[in-house]
Design brief:
The chain has helices spanning about 30-45, 50-55, 55-65, 80-95, 95-105, 110-115, 120-130, 130-145, 155-185, 185-205, 215-225, 225-240, 245-270. The protein is mostly helical. The radius of gyration is 26 Å and the shape is globular. It is a multi-pass membrane protein.
């Protein structure tokens, strides 16, 4: 017996698939800044312990200096000392921002960023805005660490102090990035300039010692340091006081560093090759 198999073919659909090109909408600079900011923030979110490691130095300063602080007629000397440590932490953290960029330059990943569609100004601003996150986290860690030791916590003043420090941190971070771009793959140049500049700024701000009895030339040099006005404003705010002239001077000093730093940083990024 023979079985015949008959294959029945269904009619093939002759529908034509039409592809329509969709024009991509131009991405604004704010979207570029947001993308760069998120990219820079991801390592911090994936490894938050890195922020705590950066806290070793300020916590050591607190542990070694706090027992030596004298009692003051207005209360604990911690109320005077801690805002200076918060400002010092912001200074140190922001000034090290360019170190990460130096590693990217050496590894070649920075060149890939330069040829990406993102605007170069957005690269600089997004990287600089990342400094806001360590600033907030480190300030909270310091306040929590000193709160049990006769330190009066004024929430509004602390939040206001962080807001005053934000432009300073962003601007200094941009200056650090500009220094890394200028140094290119010569990392030793970045570290030499960073270390040479950071300690005069720190000491002339009266972070560790008051400058009231300093000689005239030292007072003049301190008056030219914007960080001094920021530290004075931080001390007033952390104490729950709101003298408008002191706070306004701190805000102006912070804004000057912020605007100048971003201007220099964007110019350096636009000229990077």
């Amino acid at each position: 017996m023979t079985i015949e198999i008959t294959q029945v073919r269904e009619p093939v659909s002759t529908a034509v698939v039409r592809r329509t090109a969709v024009a991509s909408a131009p991405v604004g600079i704010l979207a570029d800044i947001r993308n760069v900011f998120v990219r820079e923030l991801m390592p911090v979110l994936r490894n938050p312990a890195s922020v705590l490691f950066a806290m070793v130095q300020p916590l050591v300063f607190l542990a070694l200096f706090a027992p030596l602080l004298p009692e003051t007629p207005t209360g604990s000397a911690l109320q005077w000392f801690v805002p200076g440590i918060v400002s010092m932490t912001a200074l140190m953290s922001a000034s090290f921002t360019g170190a990460n960029l130096s590693e990217e330059i050496v590894s070649g990943s920075f060149e890939r960023l330069l040829v990406s569609p993102a605007r170069r100004s957005a690269l600089m601003i997004g990287k600089s805005l990342r400094e806001m996150v360590p600033l907030v986290l480190q300030t909270l860690v310091i306040v929590v660490a000193v709160a049990p030791f006769a330190f009066d916590v004024h929430v509004i003043g602390i939040v206001s102090g962080i807001l005053v420090l934000v432009p300073f941190s962003v601007g200094l971070g941009a200056l650090s990035l500009a220094l890394a771009v200028a140094a290119k793959d010569q990392a030793w140049v970045f570290w030499t300039v960073q270390q040479t500049a950071i300690f005069p700024l720190l000491l002339l701000a009266g972070v560790l010692l008051p400058l009231d009895g300093a000689p005239g030339w030292l007072q003049t040099a301190a008056d030219l340091n914007p960080l001094r006005y920021i530290v004075d404003a931080e001390r007033a705010l952390f104490a729950g006081d709101y003298p408008m002239d002191t706070i306004a001077s701190g805000v102006v000093g912070s804004m000057v560093v912020g605007v100048l730093g971003l201007w220099v940083g964007v110019r350096a990024m636009n000229r990077a090759s």
